[in-house]
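Pasting as-is:
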Amino acid sequence: MSIHREKAAALLKKMSLEEKVAQLVSVWFEIHSDQTITVREAIPTYNHLPNPMEAALEFGVGQLTRPYGTIANDPREQVKVINKIQRHLVENTRLGIPAMIHEECLSGAMSVGATAFPCSLNYGSAWDTGLMKKIGEAIGDELRSMGVHQGLSPVLDVSRDARWGRLEETFGEDPYLIGEMAIAYINGLQGANRQPLATLKHFIGHGGSEGGRNHAPLHSGMNELLNTYGLPFEKVLKNTAVGGIMPAYHDIDGIPCTSNVELVVDLLKKKWGFDGLVVADYEAIAQLEKDHHVAKDPAEAAALALKAGMDIELPGFTVFKKGLISALERKLITMEEIDRSVMMVLAEKYRQGIFDNPYIDEEGLELNSDEHHALAVEIAQKSLVLLKN
């Protein structure tokens, strides 16, 4: 057992059920220009309280959702509020567990003032893995200066249907090329210390949904699923130490990816050896009940997701916060299954040094340097494709 897991196991023994569940959810705060904080959540109860932030963080939290990319404010001011939130967690919750921070970073860190890189289709059209790694390094440098621990990129979807509205997020239509570009991006972004974590998405087959519609089912046999849609994921897992993955919204043969034990546990973890954090696509766990109708209530949805290897609900706590406790009471899940995911989250927080240094350097933001801007121009130029009639 690693030293990080040893520390996590020791802390786990001290935790109440509510504190454990809190590590498996996120909170989506809106940080306003006057530095007030409200909760952006389907359950607006907290915003009627004197201090919504403190109420939402009563037992702690696993991750903070997109504190830079939610409202377009000066990141130098955002940092101060993020530190205020972390300070509350460290000083005013029973166990003092700080939060991880995740942010979008597909075309650069999603923040006012960050370097704006072209979209992933440009990356793929450049056919330059060396340049792709440099761009990953640049994005990683900016995210680290922002105190971000997990970036929600890259997209490994294979896009072959022009009707699909998320083509620009992908590297293109060729599974091999997608894998090569993703490997370069991830090795650049994560650096030698695997921080911030990259997050592979959307597992698996998201670009091939019925009618080119987001969330629609994927109709695919196992050969196409593994050798076309799965190839980029397998390549990345064999050639990087990628730290995160996000199951897709859609279902395959009636089973949503978010609750698919065969794909996430058996294939991804056991066969392909993935050992990082599995995070939910935004509202995907709630969709098990509301859209897919494979769960009749939040407790069943929470149980299905947890059994399928899910570690953290994003972007909030709509399902897991109460659903996991109810599922445990109804014997739909076991405490051991909850502990498995809590261990994953705590060990990652120890590994990244978040317990030792939870705060962001308020004078250390490094965004949109001349060097990074030059990389954005270079990839844009190299991505141009000339066609001859």
